[in-house]
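Deliverable D2.4 — example input (structure tokens):
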């Protein structure tokens, strides 16, 4: 059963901490899910949206609600970053005043939020969403592993390589490319076969980004 938050409270989340979550935006029959950094600053969940980003496009086109989900499955982060649906698909919750809400399966908590402000800051948009409902997911949180943390950090750094390079900040682009390589090595060393296969996919994605940019950086390990 969903918990009505009303006041913009966000159970479990600590103010000022950046969480790497899974964000689902829906508009009509179109649903898009992607990893997104989220910070809770009462009464809002705040995220930075760097264009081009499909989540940003859908909010700009009129999507009013976003589901922010906490997950322990690394496949959800990799699949949705590369524009694939969550590996286990979606469930549905019916919320009064909202209607059917898609919930990515394989997550253990969901915060349904209403998009209220989208502000341009010169480099990225800042999205302010007010939590309106809290739901339990269909999975359980797993114990923390360095392999998981390293893989998520590699994904975050991967998304920053192209924007910094196109802005002319080659130093930061290089720094983030090396961050990807460094963290993938940790994920491969401390993870199982799943982590090793995901690390190969992220490595290939980084190589494709560098190739598309014509960036002459050090070889990727």
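Example output (designed residues):
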């Amino acid at each position: 059963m969903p918990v009505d938050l009303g006041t913009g409270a966000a159970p479990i989340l600590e103010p000022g901490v950046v969480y790497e979550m899974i964000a689902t935006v829906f508009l009509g029959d179109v649903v898009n899910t992607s990893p997104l950094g989220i910070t809770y600053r009462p009464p809002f969940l705040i995220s930075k949206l760097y264009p081009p980003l499909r989540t940003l496009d859908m909010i700009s086109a009129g999507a009013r609600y976003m589901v922010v989900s906490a997950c322990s499955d690394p496949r959800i982060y990799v699949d949705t970053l590369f524009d694939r649906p969550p590996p286990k698909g979606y469930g549905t919750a019916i919320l009064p005043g909202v209607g059917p809400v898609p919930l990515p399966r394989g997550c253990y908590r969901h915060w349904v939020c209403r998009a209220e402000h989208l502000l341009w800051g010169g480099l990225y948009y800042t999205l302010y969403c007010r939590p309106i409902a809290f739901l339990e997911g269909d999975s359980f949180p797993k114990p923390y592993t360095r392999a998981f943390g390293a893989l998520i950090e590699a994904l975050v750094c991967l998304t920053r390589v192209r924007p910094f390079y196109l802005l002319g900040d080659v130093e930061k682009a290089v720094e983030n490319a090396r961050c990807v390589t460094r963290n993938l090595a940790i994920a491969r060393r401390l993870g199982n076969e799943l982590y090793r296969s995901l690390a190969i996919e992220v490595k290939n994605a980084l190589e494709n980004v560098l190739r598309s940019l014509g960036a002459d950086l050090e070889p990727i390990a």
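The chain has a mean pLDDT of 90.
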